[in-house]
């Protein structure tokens, strides 16, 4: 497995924001995935020191890379319908309706 520059940037930013060594953050991400380390439905919903200023940009780039990777596999609904990005987008739409 090879990490992209965006992955490396995200891991370093999250590690710094959560006051952890980069290697530990990498291990956590490999075990749980980017979208499950900090999410709205668990007790750890943000890094210890808060989200890094550059996180919005990193997250957009990760989403773009994810979309490009999924395009390689076609539009298989089994792959994309339950993806963390799709779930997150749906949750944001629902929050906007409230």
Order of helices and strands: HHHHHH
Distance between the termini: 41 Å
Strand elements, count? 0
Q: Determine the fraction of residues in helical runs and give it as a percent range.
A: 55-70%
Outline, from the CA principal axes?
Answer: globular
Beta-strand percentage range = under 5%
Number of helices: 6
Q: Report the average pLDDT across residues.
A: 79
> Low-confidence stretches at least 5 residues in length (pLDDT < 50)?
none
Structural class: mainly alpha
Biggest pleated sheet: none
> How many discrete structural domains?
1
Gyration radius, rounded: 14 Å
Could you please describe the fold and organization of this structure?
The protein is mainly α and 98 residues long. The protein has one domain (5-97). The protein is 65% helix and 0% strand. The protein contains six helices and no strands. The chain has helices at 5-17, 22-32, 34-37, 55-72, 77-80, 84-97. Helix 1 (5-17) packs antiparallel against helix 4 (55-72). The longest helix has 18 residues, at 55-72. The radius of gyration is 14 Å and the shape is globular. The N and C termini lie far apart (41 Å). The mean pLDDT is 79.
Secondary structure: elements and pairs:
Blueprint: H1 5-17, H2 22-32, H3 34-37, H4 55-72, H5 77-80, H6 84-97
Helix pairs in contact: 1-2, 1-4
Brief account:
It contains 6 helices and no strands.
Descriptive labels:
globular; 0% strand; 6 helices; mainly alpha; 98 residues; single chain
């Amino acid at each position: 497995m090879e990490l992209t520059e965006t992955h490396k940037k995200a891991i370093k930013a999250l590690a710094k924001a959560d006051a952890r060594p980069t290697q530990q953050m990498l291990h956590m991400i490999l075990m749980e995935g980017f979208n499950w380390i900090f999410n709205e439905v668990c007790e750890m919903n943000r890094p210890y020191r808060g989200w890094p200023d550059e996180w919005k940009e990193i997250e957009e780039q990760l989403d773009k890379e994810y979309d490009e990777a999924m395009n390689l596999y076609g539009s298989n609904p089994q792959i994309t319908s339950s993806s963390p990005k799709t779930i997150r987008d749906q949750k944001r739409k629902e929050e906007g309706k409230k």
